[in-house]
Structure formats: structure tokens, C-alpha cells
Amino acid sequence: MLNNWLHIFYYHIKNNKLFTILNILGLSIGIAALVFSLLYYNDEKSYDAWNPEKEKVFEVLQDLGGGNIWANNPAPLGAYFETQFQEVESYCYFNNWYYNEIIKYKDKKEILKFVDAQKNFFDFFPFEFLQGDPKACLSESSMAISDVAAQRIFGDQNPINREVEYSGRKLVVKGVYKLNTKSSIAPEAVTNLLESKLKNNKDHWGNYNFGLLIKLKDPNTAPEVRTKIEKVMYENTLVKWAKEEGLTPEEWLKKYDEEGNKVILEALQTAHLHSVIDSYPESKGNYQFLMIMLGLSVLILVLSIVNYVNLATANTIKRAKEVGVRKILGATKNNIIYQFVFETVIFVLFSILFALVIVELALPYYNDFLGKSLELNGSLFFIQLILIFFAVVVFAGIFPALYVSNFETLKVLKGNFSRSKRGIWLRNAMLIVQFAIASFFIVGSYIVYQQVHYMATKDLGFSGEQVIRISYRNKYGHNEEGYMKKNFSRFEMIKQELGKIKGVREVASGAFNFGGGATSSSSFIYNNVNIQGQNMAIDFDMLPMMNIKIKEGRNLSSKYASDTISSMLVNETAAKMMKDSALVGKEVNWNDHKLKVVGIVKDFHIYGPQAEIPPMAFFHFKTIDWMLSNLSQMYVKVDPENLEQTLSEIEKFWVQNVDNEYPFDYDFVDKNYARTYEQYVKQKNLFSLLNLVVILIALFGLFALAAFSIERRMKEIAIRKTLGAETGSLLKELSKQYIVFGIAGFALAILPTYYFLEKWLENFAFRISISIMPFVIGFIALLVLTLVVVLSRAYQATKVDVLKYLKYE
After folding, report:
1. Integer-rounded Cα radius of gyration of the chain
2. One domain, residues 429 and 543
């Protein structure tokens, strides 16, 4: 029986090559799209899956109100977990970012990603230890390193008990762990230098400086623990602050228009994809982008299956007599169903194989697109592939098999089947679905393009053209006497020397990064309004060099001695929150510093153009001298002519006079800023690519379906031509139903397209409004493509020899 089915299958694919190619190609593209999404999905979901403590570990986040959510906590909070929180098994303070620092061993020097944490860090992230004791490897004089780092530094030598130099200290390696890169924290080295900082801040409830992890005995007690932490924070911050001013907590909240701090406990298990902020050293995943990719790939697979079913049911018309003969010879209905499902199985197997070839060939580009290193392996992936196989066979094979098995034997043997309406309504409905999916992609792609173009061309409020950002490190640390004065003198010297290099126009600096925000944030009070502002420490030349405008008042200037003592600027956003139309000249309480507002800065984008502009407070480095410690980059405006030579001279000076330890690291401000919305550029490119794929699949199906439909009407066309019908009227008659289907499909897609794209646009603080234009353009594009495909096939039909179809009548 199988041999007979294979011979019949081979006969039909040989005589319907176009049908076979289009079906396999359409299904292959649909399956490949889903495979790409599943590879990405599996990779993102694998983060922290290795960690046996993932369900019990929570990160403590502080919600300060007004959209300010911090991953940092005050140092005194930890002591309460030891005495008042029976639900908490343990806690661990850590710095929730990487230090990219140099580690030296003899004549070797490597830059590693360090995390500084308390000694029980490996209770929360229990990496497999190859050497040493994870419970005893961290102290103020010892450290642990990853297996990869150990190989880079020590080669084949045993790293244990070897002394290395790190940030001016001597540390002994006491542990080597196997690094798991699918982790929210994946450091190449871990130190415990945090304890002294915690001790220095043990009474400072207002200093939010440290990341904090807690491990619960029972994860279900998280809501209770959160409430208790909020109570501790309330009693040690708000109640004390209110008491200092002689107010009740309620009066204090009312006076400063505050809601009070809230606490968020975020489970490690879901943090990578669902964290409210990017709070771990390894950047969080983009859950929305992941869902978009999965949704679009499923939509493409649905389109491929609909396309297959439509073509398969249309093609069965040619096989009606075959089915009739098989029934006369004794074939049962189930036998017919099994035969056609068997053929679908072969089609799907070939499609999956071809899809895997497509994925394998395109995977390097896909990895580059995502910044991943995905591979076609893993037991989960192969299970998913088997499920895809069965799902496609069921949805693509069952209906055509049932449809063909219900042919009426006598009717099809008399040759009347071609005039039957059976199944036509379903093919038409599925064709409308195809048009709807194509419409969604065409219109959606255009709207995504408009939004990304809007971000790329929006006035940012500053000009980063020909400005380079150079990574800078302060030379003198906190423990050195007069370190602030020494750092400032060094900074001024570097600035002056850079300005002497040919091709350098201007040099300036600020304790913030265009695209990344300020390095610190503090609240300041004006007229009982409490504002959490970004601390924008600058020198006098920073704003003019970046073409940042002053809306009212003046800029900070070296002409005024007070501008390094008691002057400040605020941006427009902060000024609006301060609710004073005559703000210039007024005094502000900034962390117990009395500062006078001398100017209002026009708003500019410090984060990506998709983010809201936060309130900002500007002052000179000398005004709030500790902010010089936050200085991590210098900005140099260069002449575009002889740019390569200028950069070479800057690097030469930097390596010889500023920092010969670390590689010279620079980037152009405008390019660095463009990376803040790079993910949305990728989404635009993805949508455009998928749009092309969807259109191709839809056109494949439309072309084949039109070919089958017109083939059935060849006698009608021949009779019409014999009776004098002109080519134009024939083309109109053959194409009008497809125009109607196209209009119906487009109408069906309007509301879903608007809804989903509107939800996507909610990600942006600055966004376009969806107008009618994308829908008009999409509708025209859909009709044009439909007419091109259908009319090309219909025109061929009008040129046939009429005798070929009438000579037997």
C-alpha cells in the first residue's frame, strides 16, 4: 500500500512541479521563521535556569515615586534581616554592575569583569567550583575567579593561593569557578571589598548605594517581606525626616507632595525577561521584542499553512476522478484520508529539512542581528521541532484529506465535479485570511518605519556631531589625602593639553553620558516641592560645546566666582515641576546646600529618544566637589579634516600622559547615542524582512490559486473569446473576485493592525500618531501586487488557442 501511495505521490509532484515547489517553499519559510523565534526564546528563557536558588532569591528594588525605581539600597537595612525577618534565610549586598578592571600577575595583565559582593555571594549564585571553597574564598584579602579568567592569567599553572595585583591591592586567589554565561550575574572575578563601604554607611539611610539580594525560606512569603521592608524604610527615613522638621509623617508627605517609598521584590527566576528595570550586570532581555518575534513567526507559519491548505484543496479537483476510481475499487474513506495525510507528512518532512537548511545558512546573520551565539541543538529544540511537525501535519493535512475523501463517486466520474461549489467558500475564506495577514505586515512595517525614522531625525536638544567621548578614570582614590584637589588639577591639565592638539576644537566634560544618563541622582526641594533630579555636574564649556541652549537666565561662567560655590541650573522639566514662572534668581535646597538658580536649560535627551526627559540639576564640579569622582568620560570636539591624524595624536597623548594601563577607548557621541534605540531599528529591519517574506508567501499562493482557478475556467474563456469578448473584459472578469477578496482581507486587518501597533507605540515617550496614510499606502500596495500576479496569469489565459478547449464539444 505504501509503495502504491509513493508511486501516486511521485506521479503528481512530477506533473505539478509548480504546486510542489510553492508548497514546500511556503511551508519551509513559515517553519524557518518559527525555528528562528524558538531559538531566541529558548536562549532567553534559559537565563538563571541553572541556578537551584532561583525561586528563593529576590532582588530588593526601591520605588521612589515618579517613575524613579532604583536597584540600590541603604546599608543599614541589612542588619534588620538578621533580627526582625524570620522569613529571610540570608542577604547579600553587591555592586550590581561590572568593574572593568586590570588584574596583574607577574608580567601578565588582563582586564576582567569584576563584581564586588559580600562573602556569601556564592550562596545566591552557586557556580560550580573547580577549586577552593565557595564559602571561604571571599575576604578583603582574597578573591575568586572564573575558569576562563584563570586560563587567561595563569595558563596551565594552578591559580590557588597565587597573589595578584588588583586596583592597587594584593589579593590571593582562593577559588576557581566554572562560569555560566546564562546568568543575570556572570562575573569573571568576584571580590569582597564592599565591607568597608558598608561600615562607613551603616548609619546613612539616605544613601542608596548598594544592590541587595535576599533569600527567602519560602518564596510565597515575598509579599509579607516586602510589606515589612517598607515599614522599616518608613520608620527610618520618612518618620525621622518629618520629626526633624517638627511634622507628622502625613504632614511631611503632604508638604512635599510625596507618596512615600515603595519596595519591589523581584524574583531572580523571572528577572531576566520581566524586571521593571535593568538591575543586574548582565542586561535584561527584551520580553516585548521576544513576544513580537514569536507572534510574527506564528503568524507567518499560519499564513504558510493556510497557503498550503488552499492550494491542496484546489489541486484536489485534478485528482477527483482518481479518488472516484479508488472508491470504485474498494478504497474506504479512511484509506483515502490516510493516503492524503501520508502525502502531507512527506511534504512537511521535506519542508522541515529545507527550513533547517535555511536556518543553518542564515544563523550567523541572525546571531549578529541579536548579538547572540545561538546553535541548532539542544533536547528542548528537537522536542519543539517534533511538535511543529505534528502541528503542521494536523492543521495542513487533515482538512484537505477529509475534503477529498468526501467526493461523491458517481458525480466525479461523470465529470461534473468541476462545476461543484463544494469547498470553494473555504478556499475563498482562507484567501481572505492571507490578504489580511499580508495587510497587517505591509501597514505595520510602514508604521514601524515611521516611528524609527522619527526617532532618528528628532531634534535631540544637543549636537554630538564630530564629538568624541573618551573613557576617563580618576587617578587618585578616596584614601589619598587631598584626592579631590589632585583629581581636579589633573583634569584641568589634561583638558588644556588636549586643546593644544591640532584638529581639536574644544574640550569639556560632564558627569553624565549621552544615551546613558547621569551617574547619580539626588532630590532637591523648592517651595515644599521635592524633585528627584539627575545630577549633571559640568565644567563651564560643556553646554556650549554640545550646543545645549539656555532658555532663561544665563549659563555657568568663569566670570562669576559664585558659579563654583552656590550657583546651579535646572532644565525645563525640573522648572515645570518647581511651579514658578520667575524661577531665575530663586534659592533651592539641594541636600542642605543653598544654591541659586541662575538659568534654565532647554530640555535635551539624555537617554534614548524613546525615553522621557528627566528633571536635571546642573552645577560646576567645584560646587559639589564629590561629583568629580563620578567623572568617567571627557568630550572632545574635533575637526572633520585630518580626523584620523587628530585621533592618532589624541591617543598618543592619552597613552603617554593620562593612562597607559587601560586601552584607549573612545566613541563618537552621535553613534553611541544611536545605539540607545538600536533595538527599535532592529525591530524595523525585522518587520521589513518578515514583510517581504509574507508578501512572497502570499504571492506564491495567490499565483498558484489563480492558475488553478483560471485553468478550471478555460472552456468558459474559450467560449467568451469565440463570442467576441475582448481581452480587457476577460481580464476584468477573471480578476474582479480577487480584488473583492483583497478588499475584504484588508478590512479584516484594519482593527488588529491599529490595536497592536498602538500598543507597540506606547513604549515611546516621544512617538508618532497613527494616521490614515499607512493604511492608504498599504491598501494600494496590496491591490497593485494582487493585480500584477492575477493579471499576469489571466493575460496568458486569454492568449490560448480556443480550439484546444472547444474541439471536443
Report:
1. 34
2. no
Dist CA 469 CA 179 (whole Å): 32
Separation of CA 265 from chain center: 23
Tell me: do 354 and 239 sit in the same domain: no
- Give the residue numbers spanning the domain of 597: 474-661
Q: How far apart are CA 708 and CA 311, in angstroms?
A: 8
What is the β-pairing status of strands 262-267 and 57-65? antiparallel
pTM of the model: 0.81
- Distance separating alpha carbons of residues 522 and 518, to the nearest angstrom: 11
Tally of structural domains, the chain? 4
Query: H-helix or E-strand containing 604?
Result: none
Measured from the Cβ of residue 482, the count of other Cβ atoms closer than 10 Å reads 9
Diameter over CA atoms, the chain: 109
How many Cβ atoms sit within 10 Å of the Cβ of residue 279? 21
Give yes or no: residues 638 and 786 share one domain: no
Cα angle: 789, vertex 791, 794; to 5 degrees? 110
Confidence of residue 601 (pLDDT cuts 50, 70, 90): very high
Write the DSSP string, 512-546: EETTTEES-EEEEEETTEEEEEEEEEE-TTHHHHT
Contact 173, 146 (CB under 8 A): no
User: What is the CA 486 to chain-centroid distance, rounded?
Assistant: 42
Do 69 and 119 belong together in one domain? yes
CA geometry: angle 132, 138, 142, nearest 5 deg: 85
Task: Return d(Cα 611, Cα 573) in angstroms, integer.
Answer: 13
Query: Could you report the per-residue pLDDT of 365-411, keeping only the tens digit for each?
Result: 888 888 888 888 888 899 999 999 999 988 887 777 666 655 555 55
Residues 223, 157, single domain; the answer is yes
Q: From start to end of 593-695, where are the E strands?
A: 593-601, 616-620, 633-638, 666-668
Instruction: Say whether both 568 and 556 belong to one domain.
Output: yes
